[in-house]
Amino acid sequence: MLSPGVQLGNRYRLDERIASGGMGDVWRGTDQVLGRTVALKSLLPALLDEPGFAERFRGEARTMATINHPGVVDVYDFGNDQQIAFLVMEYVEGDPLSATLSRVGRLTPARTMALVAQAADALHAAHEKGIVHRDVKPGNLLVRPNGTLVLTDFGIARSDLVGQLTAAGSVLGTASYISPEQAMGQVATPASDVYALGVVAYQCLAGRRPFEGDNPLEIAMKHVQEAPRPLPADIPPQVRSVVERAMAKDPAARWPTAAALAGVARQLKAALSQQARTGAQSRPISGVPASPAAPPGRAQVPLPQQARPMASAPRPPAAFSCRATPASAAAVGQRAAGSLAMARSTTDRTCGGM
């Protein structure tokens, strides 16, 4: 059992446990060679018994370490000690976005677009290395005191075994932010991360998540079957359009890349900030192209004349009919439960992510 003061790899001292999750714990620690504060993620011993897991984790950790982007938490080291595998990461001074939302409720459209642009930039850097985050949510977006954002807790070497470790608080594709395709048990892709970031943007703007339910399975099925409640009427239609497109049920209808989403969010942030300075609140935002069919390198936003509700979800397959029989409903639950690890939430703290 790890405890404060334990040393791993004859180098890293554990100082304080700051988060727990389905794969293990995250600690604030000290690199005693370089004399710097680090975050250490220790893996549950049971994961190491799974054939090939340690090798996958080490390989993906190496890939993560090659991402050189200010919006992605740095990976410093990987090791094994006392039958414990651990990952050493940058310790980020800042608050999770979840804490900010709990404190203030809603963010302004300009602030939301600024954070979305930064997060999308970080996701694109990972996607270019072939890494999908799989669990984008406010608790994994750390905001430094200077307002810059760092994306943490990438789904490195996610294990099938984690889905069985509900007692340890496992979270795989947190239900409130899971994409429809993940909820249906399909493989997560970069488009899945774009969807999840769209949900985060929705929550920042509305002060609530798009879907609520009594349990994770119910919430996940709403991502598949239902259209979100409309955003508040005070959200500019251009911003509304960005979120609508990011949250499209069909992955092909979303922003083509995270970079495309970042570009258009940055344009809107600049335009909104300019409006705020000039007081021209009633004027349409200019300088943002109207065609949604632009190539990925030049992200563009459709400019509706007035706010409209989120597009309705496509008619679900028969197995997901709202009028399904008890037998078909049970089949739905079994299928979705296989793609979700349902458990208690972890504590969001300043760290390298969990």
Topology:
Elements (H helix, E strand, L loop, with lengths): L6 E2 L3 E10 L2 E8 L4 E8 L1 H4 L4 H13 L9 E7 L2 E7 L4 E2 H8 L4 H19 L13 E3 L5 E3 L28 H4 L6 H17 L9 H10 L11 H10 L11 H21 L47 H12 L17
Antiparallel strand pairs: 1-2, 2-3, 3-4, 4-6, 5-6, 7-8, 8-9
Structural class: alpha+beta
Helical residue percent band? 25-40%
Q: Mean pLDDT, nearest integer?
A: 78
Tell me the major beta sheet: 6 strands, antiparallel
Strand order of the largest sheet: 1-2-3-4-6-5
The best one-word shape is globular
Treating each run of at least 4 consecutive H or I residues as one helix, how many helices? 10
CATH level 1 name of the largest domain: Mainly Alpha
- Which architecture of the largest domain would the CATH scheme give at its second level? Orthogonal Bundle
Our estimate of the beta-strand percent is: 5-15%
**Ends apart, CA distance between termini:** 18 Å
**CATH fold assignment of the largest domain:** Transferase(Phosphotransferase), domain 1
CATH superfamily of the largest domain: Transferase(Phosphotransferase) domain 1
Q: Tell me the number of strands.
A: 9
Low-confidence stretches: 159-173, 284-332, 341-351
Computed over alpha carbons, the radius of gyration is 21 Å
